[in-house]
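re: ur question from earlier - yeah i can do the single chain one, its not a big deal. heres the input i used so u can compare w yours
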Amino acid sequence: MTGPGLFSNIGKTAKDLLTKDYTSDQKLSVSSSSITGVALTSAAVRNGGLCSFDVGSQYKYKNTLIDVKVDSESNISTTVVISGILPSTKTIASIKLPDYNSGKLEVQYLHHHASLASVVALNKSPLIELSGTMGSQGIAFGAEAGFDTVSGAFTKYSAGIGLTKPEYNASVILMDKGDTMRASYVHHFDESQRSSTVLEILRRFSINENTVTVGGQYALDPWTTVKARLNNFGKLGALLQHEVRPKSMLTISGEFDTKALERTPKFGLALALKP
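and the output i got, formated as tokens:
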């Protein structure tokens, strides 16, 4: 299905380039799968002196996907995704126990020239979120809003436009009830889009502050990619990601403040092993 995609996809390419896979934790995850459609995943995370873990299983049958995770604090997260109940739709139900008020129901409708998404909290005082986009595969106009049914007030509203071409992605989003504007541009240097550069400008009107971030990624070889980012406040981040075997990734990342070198840099290490 081609089309404008969901509102959350506007600006996602730039956001992923600047934030995805950067971490200050030490994480090990191991996945396995069976011919019956069951996938098992276990992960351990160390952040400073604190350690946590979670175990999950995923089962897929025809147009239904069931995902269950249990973490070290005895929280049980369950997500059920059903595609095609109605043409071009996807239904997502989720809950995190023992918090019974955390349940959500999301319905997505994806068409060639439009998309809609609605999220309803499954509790006594539900929050409702709606978003929609119009356009085609190369351009999308969209908006989203959140509404509190108890107070009768909007919790958020945003609007944006995105342009997508094989060689670049550009977007402008007005969010935080009109207080913040984010503009981004990504240029790809190859067809695989593994070598790219990105510029993002974030303007907060209420505090008269601009944040300018530049970054990019470069494929050293078919298995190794490096990424870097730097903003006007002197925060520098770098990342190296290597495919140690098919689908299994080793990621090393770090961040430090170039204007305060006495501060301790942040380093992260993640190893994801998949079959």
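Residues 7-273 form a domain with the Porin fold (CATH 2.40.160.10). not sure if urs matches, ping me
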